[in-house]
Amino acid sequence: MMPRTFGLLPDGRPVMQATISGHGLTASVITLGASLQDLRLAGIGHPLVLGFPRLAPYLDEGRYFGAVIGRYANRIAHGRAALDGQRLQLDRNQDGRHMLHGGHDGCGTRNWMLADWDESSVALADHLPAGHMGFPGAMLIRATWSILPGPVLMLTILATSDDTTFCNFAQHSYFNLDGTDTVAGHRLTVPAETYLPVDEDMIPLGAPAAVQGTHLDFRNPVTLAERLKGPRIDHNLCLSDRRRIVPRKAAVLQADGLMMTLRSTEPGLQVYAGEHLAPGAPGLGGRPYGRHAGIALESQLWPDAPNHAGYPSARLEAGQLYRQTTVMSFHRSPKG
């Protein structure tokens, strides 16, 4: 199927949709945010991610659904960071106090260019000028969604800048593997020994803390219903102290006989259980999404890393190539 127009932005620019398939997996990607708009597995009668059949919700309640977010995913406290002795004042789009997902014009809200497409792969590109959202360096970004045997959905993000800058991308899909109203029946496993405690603005307080004895201990499979009634789940789980070349296991999500294993090169996984989701426009299944309708598993660097010397570095040197790989593998598992 050739790429088609998914909708028009208020300024008249078209948002394109490309659908790729192979090995029983079908994914639809839109140029707005380079977003995974739909994901289907043969034999399963419902989508595996939250999304919308029309463009309009992506400009409002569906912001960031399935998007590739950056140039700095997650938060930077007070929109401030130091780089080579220079104090940067970044865009503060979270309540006017902090930077969230690269600012109000971050990559997750921009209309990318459809760069390349074939039956099983689609590549999108974006260009951020020097000074964009307060960051130094003009940056080129290429995000490629590919379907591989397994079946596997792989996201590869490449970026380079003409000046030293900060760089941290993530995919922001909300997963729901059983098609029910919430992810309460899902089981989640994350092999993280520590997490980052945060303040009321979701800004990290400092050093990692042990997950043991907290609602964020997912080292063994946990049925989410046990945790959704407790404290909010919107934290970075620390998988490593540095980025890796070869993806490592970051999470396993199971529901109704289906298992998704997520592997990533990134040292952190932001787990967000969709507390803010509220019924609005109909989603892919024809009904609005309510609280806990999906769970986001965002592979990334640790939030606010530019302001914490002990965190994995977000520094990208001029001319250096940033490469992130996130792999989502799907297979049937015994129910229960």
UniProtKB/TrEMBL annotation:
GO function terms (MF aspect): aldose 1-epimerase activity; carbohydrate binding
A Gene Ontology biological process term: glucose metabolic process
One Pfam family it belongs to: Aldose_epim
Pathway: Carbohydrate metabolism; hexose metabolism
Positions that bind beta-D-galactose: 74-75, 172-174, 234
Top-rank taxon, per record: Bacteria
Keywords: Carbohydrate metabolism, Isomerase
InterPro entries xrefs: Aldose_1-epimerase, Aldose_1/G6P_1-epimerase, Gal_mutarotase_sf_dom, Galactose_mutarotase-like, GH-type_carb-bd
SUPFAM superfamilies assigned to the protein according to its UniProt record, in alphabetical order: Galactose mutarotase-like
Active-site residue numbers: 172 (proton donor), 298 (proton acceptor)
Similarity comment text for this entry: Belongs to the aldose epimerase family.
Catalytic activity annotation: alpha-D-glucose = beta-D-glucose
EC numbers: 5.1.3.3
Catalytic EC class: isomerase
Protein name (record): Aldose 1-epimerase
